[in-house]
Amino acid sequence: xxxxxxxxxxxxxxxxxxxxxxxxxxxxxxxxxxxxxxxxxxxxxxxxxxxxxxxxxxxxxxxxxxxxxxxxxxxxxxxxxxxxxxxxxxxxxxxxxxxxxxxxxxxxxxxxxxxxxxxxxxxxxxxxxxxxxxxxxxxxxxxxxxxxxxxxxxxxxxxxxxxxxxxxxxxx
Length: 172
Ligand SMILES: Cc1cc2nc3c(=O)[nH]c(=O)nc-3n(C[C@H](O)[C@H](O)[C@H](O)COP(=O)(O)O)c2cc1C
Description:
single chain; about 170 residues; alpha/beta; Rossmann fold; 4-stranded parallel sheet; 6 helices; about 35% helix; binds flavin mononucleotide
């Protein structure tokens, strides 16, 4: 039986919760599902003290808030399903805080090695608050320096995105 840990980033039982229900239904029965509402936990942002980088075999975060318990759940889970409504062009602050604190799992021995993550987002729409969303461009994997400069594929797709933006502006 797989353990699915759902980290819920919405402060309410609304759209994101409903869409998450559908995703979980789609996964079928036979999984152990734990749903955690991040708004009910006390999770502070990362303080960049780097204490975690000096610890092996444990998260080693110097903050003793509710993230301590969440670390264990995340290490145990076969799938961590992050969920969030889009708030002002980003995930909710609660999700961002928890994500920053995952730095402690990535340092040292890499306690998340082999774990699987996925993300469920809901958003008002392309024209939220009168701002027309023109899409996104992700360059990934993005190598450094000379390798990036030599990547014809990354250059071409970035230029293609620029062309699309220019087209959208001309259509105004
Ligand atoms: C504070 C706030 C900010 C929002 N910002 C955005 C936004 O930037 N873009 C967008 O498409 N929708 C935005 N929305 C709409 C929500 O993302 C959308 O209604 C979402 O499905 C709500 O999920 P929930 O019911 O789980 O809270 C915003 C809503 C709120 C309350």
